[in-house]
Amino acid sequence: MLSEAASYKPLAILRIGVGLILLWQGALTWSHRELLLDEFGLVAWSLGEQLIDPAMPRLSTVAAFFALFGLSSQQSVTLVMGLHLLAAAGLLAGFMTRTCAFAAWITHLVLIGTGVAFTYGLGKLLVIALFYCLVMPVGREWSVDRRMRGPGAEAAPGEDASLSVLVLRLHMCIIYAAAGISKSFGEQWWSGDAIWRALALPQFQQFDPSPLLQYPFILQAVSVGAVLVQLAYPLLVWTRLRFLIVMATELLHLGIAIFLGLWLFSGIMMVLNAAAFGESLWRTVRERVPRAKPAVAPGAP
Amino acid sequence: MLSPARRKQVLWGAAGLHLFIALVYSSYLPVEHFIPPAIERPLRVYGGYSGAATHFDFFAPSVVSQVRVQFKLGAPDGSARLYEVTTSSAEVNQRLAAMFNFFLRPTVQPFLVNSWSRYALDKHPDAQWVQTRVEFLDIPTLAQMKEGRKPAWVEIGRFGAVRESAPAR
Hints:
Chain A has 301 residues and is mainly alpha-helical. Chain A is built from 14 helices and no strands. In chain A, helix 7 (121-135) packs across helix 14. Chain B has five helices and four strands.
């Protein structure tokens, strides 16, 4: 139950999922890079970079380097974002996986470092996911690298697969335990106000939530349910109820995406869950669903 | 060169330490204040690069409301117009909202307003001055909504700036 990784596929799910999220994020933000990351943008570099530790990478350092080759700060931002997306595509395909993971990780750190004021939970979760793509064997399955090694290079699951999946699982438990416990200290989550406030905030509003005021018990049930799912996750994923709790969690993230419009954030959480427990869930489904008997040709003995 | 057994020990040890750091920082409480600085800084830097130093405090312990910013730009001829920073992308607007909420941090406030004002003037080279109005959405509780209260934008700051130099770009 702790880590029964049967293959490198869970890690391939992580790699492909992260690659897709990065490309999706890039498509949504590319044309707004000046607004979000310009040296003299809404949050000037000189201000944004004061908010991060001096040891963290930043755009001003990169731009100073590129300035030696005559590039402006705007061109440096374009170059870093372009490199980031190229690396994301490489990660998705599993081509030069380790190099692409490194490039995607370091460029992501540069972009969210200087743009820290524009960063929400997604940016931090992507650091976690990209770091794991860098240190874990994520290119051993479903990748161009695997194909290039030839058919003889079978990816028999090793100790590194088991350890990697275990680390992913335990990290997911830490995330949900911390999120659940933090929420449980807030009165808003028990009264239903938290869900009401989230739905009422213009930044998340997908529809007019006022009709829901007629049914406060629904808001309260959803709110309490969200806390309970997160509190139960680290306990139940190690039991026979794993399938149930992981599906409930994925549904929670789908709900966050639909009702609060946080598609990228929900996407990365669903990817992390699928990587940590997807293979195990798939095996459960295959064991429980009876396989169709092979068709027998008429007249066969 | 490490023996396989030793390598396994090192890998498991590193994984355990990494997860321990993630556990320490995961709470919404600022645990870093309780760790000696000599240890905390390296942990924070490692956590910054690996994501291990992440507080999972999204929407916790409570859902904070939203800040919005409106600029009033004045031209030398005495005319004035309003300007709001928004885009056609919901994802980018989400990031803008996260950034505007930084205003709620008192230590950053004056620098942030200064940066916003300069940006607004840079974007509108014809403007001579800018007035930045910051509002906070007051959302009543479910019980208060039942009593008839409505969400309302409340002004929490108004700042003025005059153009002193040519646009940065």
